[in-house]
Design a protein that fits this description.
By secondary structure, this protein is an alpha/beta fold. The protein has helices at about 5-15, 25-35, 55-60, 75-85, 120-130, 145-155, 170-180; strands spanning about 45, 65-70, 90-95, 105-115, 135-145, 180-190, 190-200. It has one domain (about 5-200): Rossmann fold (3-Layer(aba) Sandwich). The structure holds S-adenosylmethionine.
Length: about 200
């Protein structure tokens, strides 16, 4: 794995990460995830999963026949996620989204919640995500803020995340289309950003 300063940043943040989420955030997330089309038996890939904030919501929907696989390159985040969710249908892999250790077409849906702006090589990440999703699977980028609100937040935090942004609409569409994702839809509103694209092989 090539060195990326985000790893240290998120390793340091892992211990207190879960304290950031309010009960309202969790309710809102449940509502948002509930509308993604996740179904029992599906295999879901959570990209940049952190401590696994989506795991409990997802694992209950996919049930015992489905799986939730989290990927994070911060070892501390991955370890915390693993400790938080010791369930047979949940697993966590410490890996970079730009080099996913999975077979082609292994997943039915990909979700990058609050993580995409931090991926240093977004084009490679999108291409890898395309490879590991099956034909017809959807890939979501979700944030509980608009792209502008998020950029402002990252600028205020500074350091390694200072310039982390969601690519603007034209660039994101071009990135998706370059990896043969189609039907790109982007909603960018106060309190919610949601981009979705469909994998075509
Ligand atoms: C802002 S946190 C969000 C974590 C989690 N999704 C949540 O909402 O609580 C972003 C996560 O993406 C991970 N990440 C950033 N770049 C990554 C990469 N190239 N490969 C894997 N994980 C990455 C970080 O380690 C961090 O845990």
């Amino acid at each position: 794995m090539t060195h990326d300063k985000h790893q240290e940043f998120f390793d340091l943040a892992a211990a207190e990460w879960d304290l950031m989420f309010t009960a309202e955030d969790l309710e809102l997330l449940k509502h948002i995830v509930g509308k993604l089309g996740v179904e029992p038996g599906m295999h879901i890939l959570d990209l940049g999963c952190g401590t696994g904030i989506l795991f409990d919501i997802l694992r209950r929907i996919v049930g015992p026949e489905g799986t939730v696989t989290g990927v994070d390159f911060s070892m501390q985040m991955a370890l915390t996620a693993h400790r938080n969710f010791p369930f047979s249908n949940v697993s966590v892999v410490d890996a970079d989204v730009s080099a996913l250790p999975f077979a082609a077409s292994a997943f039915d849906m990909g979700i990058a919640f609050s993580s995409f702006p931090h991926f240093s090589d977004k084009r490679r990440a999108v291409s890898e995500i395309h490879r590991v999703l099956r034909n017809g699977a959807r890939f979501f980028i979700i944030h509980l803020s608009s792209s502008k609100e998020l950029s402002d937040l990252h600028r205020r935090i500074g350091g390694v995340v200072k310039h982390d942004v969601i690519p603007d609409e034209a660039e994101l569409r071009e990135m998706f289309n370059g990896s043969r994702f189609t039907d790109v839809q982007i909603e960018d509103n106060a309190g919610l950003y949601r981009a979705v694209a469909v994998n075509t092989k």
